[in-house]
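Dear U.,

For the methods section draft, I wanted the exact inputs and outputs in one place so we can describe them consistently. I've listed the two proteins in the order they'll appear in the manuscript figures. Please don't edit the token lines directly; just add comments below if something needs changing.

First protein:
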Amino acid sequence: MYKSGLTELDAILAVARRGSFKAAADELQMSTTALSNAVAGMEKRLGVRLFHRTTRSVALTETGEQFIAQVAPALSDIHHAMANASSRQQRMSGSLRINTSLGAARRVFHPILAEYVRRYPAVSPRRRSSVRRRPLHRYRRCRRIWPGSASRTYASGSRVS
């Protein structure tokens, strides 16, 4: 079932459009009981009857006609806004930055990025390749812990436990 957060208003418009609770329930993919309860809940909240109901027919009251005339355009606008927001979320856009070595960029990322750009044309990948090396003096006090052994300090020659 489509849940928009506006179930009662959708129910009222569907019943008015179809002229039948059964047809409106089928359209909204909900039970006739749930649809009837949604319409009755809105009528109770408003304090007016929107439909004349008999066992064989459903017709809008004068108040119901005025209500539909005012609500229908606004509800349509709300549904369009929700659909637009949802489609933007599903559509990836923006920039994708990848910082990698030159070799990995050529061997690994080039074929992947070609497919990625084909699937998501609104994304602009930006690849930055560098061959920059870290200066040796930065490793002087670098400690590394090996599983099952003591930690070691590189470049100073001393062992740390």
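Second protein (the one for the lower panel):
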Amino acid sequence: MYDERLAFHRLPANKEERTRVIFNALKDAKVPRFREEKSENLSSNYDRVKGMGGPEEATKVMLSLKGKKQKIKWIRQFDGVGEKYSRDIWMDIYDPDFHDSIALDTRVKNFAKLIGLNATRSEDLEKQLLDFARECNLSGWELDRLIFNFGELILQKLKHQDAVLNNQSLNASRP
């Protein structure tokens, strides 16, 4: 649900007032964590977008970027956007440069560990997950969304299956 208070043209020009409006909207939306930090980041990002000429101009720049590296670099200029979210944003809009990407969060890392992937470097883990996705006839984006939307269910099923297999092997080894 969209909160009209957060429409770009409705936000106050004064940064302190704008931050307060954003904070209250986050509070009303029951955003559970870091409301103060998020409202300050969003308020600063408003200034950044305004400096680009507004949302329409910023969007034109965003959509004109070429390649993953350029897109990640551009989006990381915004306060509060880290490594994972810099990929998520592009994946959420199904950008073609990110069809073979996976945003490595805790859920994805836990999933990877449970299916036997054990890379320590993020780049290596993403490569292993992309290889796994290809084995499943999925793109990286599809695997990422599958884990995001159904990861907990998949993990529960894998743990249950593992328990069943362990129980069967215990029973088989008994005289």
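Candidate sentences for the figure legend, describing the second protein: The mean pLDDT is 89. The longest helix spans residues 140-173.

Thanks,
Y.
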